[in-house]
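User: I'm curious whether this sequence folds into something compact or stays loose and floppy. Could you predict its structure so I can see for myself?
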Amino acid sequence: MVNKVLVAVVSIVLVVVGIVALVSVGRNSAMIIPGLQANNYKIGDRVPLKVNKLTSIHSQLPYDYQSMSFAFCEGAISNTEDNENLGEILVGDRIFTADGYKINLYENVRCQSVCEDPITMTAEQWAIIYQRVREEYKVHWLLDELPAAYKYLTLDGTERIETGFPFGRIEEAAKEGEPEVEKHTLLLNHANIKVHYYISPKQPNEYKVIYFEVTPDSIDYTQDSDWKAVCGSDSFDNFDLEKGDPETRTLRWTYSVEWQETTISWGQRFDAYLKMNASDGHIHWFSIVNSVMIVLFLAAMIAMILLRTLNADFRRYNSQEPDEETETGWKLVHGDVFRPPQRPMIFSMLVGSGVQMLMMVMLTLIFAVLGFMSPGNRGVLSRPCSCSTSGWASSLVTLPLASISYSKVPTG
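Assistant: Here's the prediction. I'll summarize afterward.
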């Protein structure tokens, strides 16, 4: 009786929580899951640029933009972190709004400075930036929930597209009259931003962001006082971190924005990202081998302990007379293993919930592999299908388990 009352109370609480959540979502228009509803912009509207973490294929340690706040002026990068969902938190995203990058819809700009004055840093701060470039860190930006795409050519001339663009690059140049190769560590302090937008025939005054591409460049503004002329010219010197005095060197971040119309609709805007042959899949083989070896080592230790315990019990059983045989060692466990639980309804609910979650994960992965699910919220029918199927599997386990448990538990 107590178990039935407890189940009824839990069910009522869950129903009330669900109703409250639905009402709160309905009343608060700002509670919209990113990526599930299109953001419509008009000409001149501000499209906020957000900066995410810096990652490297050579290191598992990401950095957020606040770790490099010394390289920007006051107010260029917001100090308040954006509200992130559970998935973004689990993958280590740290998203901030870049107020210094002013991107307005349908407004092409050329050579805009993030900060009004150039930034002066200490030798230690320059060393941090130099180390980030040497470790090949990449910058991840977001525009209307779209990650920044970076297009480049490989050594064999193949065009590749990936998310995130390099923070800097290392160029090799041969010295005159010498066989040695000289390496230059360049900081990519200029961003050429290209944004594709779509105009729906049903809403000719509404613009939707479809694609977001960034092509970084390295420009040395310390050689000329007229930095806009240097940025707008076709030829300029690269910003080499190994040249100049760190105590007197200055840094200026600049950007350009170009808008282009596209025929790709909003529902298909993630197709380009899903087809990317990104190089982010660089596998950390050392970490994988290390984890596998630790698991195998621990499993071998547990197996050895169990085998030694069982062998000792078997030797003890074989040395006893048939009339004196008693249950000792591992045989004593069977009384606890096959004993019905004291709360069979709660036990059956927990087992059923676990089966339901396992089935939902498996079906979701299957639908994702088959292409029925995408970040564009397509394949919506797969989710209710997976929920109903997993609920059916949960009921197959829960009901028999609950009936068997109740039949074996004494009442009263």
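Summary: DSSP finds nine helices and 16 strands in the chain. Confidence is low (pLDDT under 50) at residues 20-35, 376-382.
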